[in-house]
Fold this sequence. Notes:
Layout: E1 3-4, H1 5-12, E2 15-17, E3 23-24, E4 26-27, E5 37-40, E6 57-60, E7 71-73, H2 77-88, E8 104-105, E9 110-111, E10 116-117, E11 122-123, E12 128-129, E13 134-135, E14 140-141, E15 146-147, E16 152-153, E17 158-159, E18 164-165, E19 170-171, E20 176-179, E21 184-187, E22 190-193, E23 199-202, E24 207-208, E25 213-215, E26 221-224, E27 229-230, E28 235-236, E29 241-242, E30 247-248, E31 253-254, E32 259-260, E33 265-266, E34 271-272, E35 277-278, E36 283-284, E37 289-290, E38 299-301, E39 306-307, H3 308-319, H4 321-344
Parallel strand pairs: 4-5, 5-6, 6-7, 8-11, 9-12, 10-13, 11-14, 12-15, 13-16, 14-17, 15-18, 16-19, 17-20, 18-23, 19-24, 20-25, 23-26, 24-27, 25-28, 26-29, 27-30, 28-31, 29-32, 30-33, 31-34, 32-35, 33-36, 34-37, 36-38
Antiparallel strand pairs: 1-3, 2-7, 21-22, 38-39
Amino acid sequence: MYKTLKxxxxxxxxxxxxxxxxxxxxxxxxxxxxxxxxTFLANPKYFPLIDKTGASAIVTSEDVETKHxxxxxxxxxxxxxxxxxxxFAPTEVTHPKGIHSSVILGKNLSLGKDVAxxxxxxxxxxxxxxxxxxIYSGCFVGHHTKIGSDTLIYPNVSIRERVSIGNRVIxxxxxxxxxxxxxxxxxxxxxxxxxxxxxxxIGDDVEIGANVTIxxxxxxxxxxxxxxxxxxLVQIAHNVVIGENSIxxxxxxxxxxxxxxxxxxxxxxxxxxxxxxxxxxxxVMAQAGVSKSVPAETTVWGYPAKPVDVAKRVNASVQxxxxxxxxxxxxxxxxxxLESKLKKK
Length: 345
């Protein structure tokens, strides 16, 4: 398969600067690309590679300049390049069709049109599944659970009882939704389990990565807002509420009853204590430990997390501690020498 730059630009609604007749035969990253490939440039740290890459053309943002090779200017290079990749190498996935004979179906089910359920899956009583939803093999769906339309559930997902999942949701393998929240009361040195009687509610257009755990609420519900995307290996505790269109990156952990606003980003390995609020559009940078509420429109970092400009100054000061220690040691030595001389006088 090959396309000209003119054809590609039309496809992604971009503007060609340079020769639009250049023929593109493949796609690659900016470091790996060679002649005949098209690549993209979105991260400023790769700007020095714009004139060094072997690619025949580059998809860039609207403010990038280069005279060494043709470019296609677009509003969002990452999104545009994703469309190009899909057009050159469309993903061919054969999803299950129909209901396999080994599936165990409960009573009083409501199954929509063209629902597909693969082998060795268990669907318990009073479950509702919407049109065109696909459930791969080895899954478990507990009683009184509702799953919307056009949802895709990959193998070995466990969805406990009374959970609600919206439309166009994607859930990757190994994820557990609706497991008991971690609730115990300690009396005379023994931990007594607190019943977790609530549920989990997941909105539309949510994607949940592999091996994610989302606990049911102690009362009421744990909520994942519509449009939110959750990476692999994330833990979301009981009664957490995550607003719409948030991003939760791998190995993040959110303690119970914490509320995240809309468009919040938690980067990798972030830890959040319970019973706090993180405001709309806040960003928590990687490995931060959030011990108190974060205002909206704020970026925080560090442990404990603090506004990023403060955290950077603190970090810079810490890096200078060895030099400061040596300086103090030298001053101490000089003071001791001066005191010794004064005593002799």
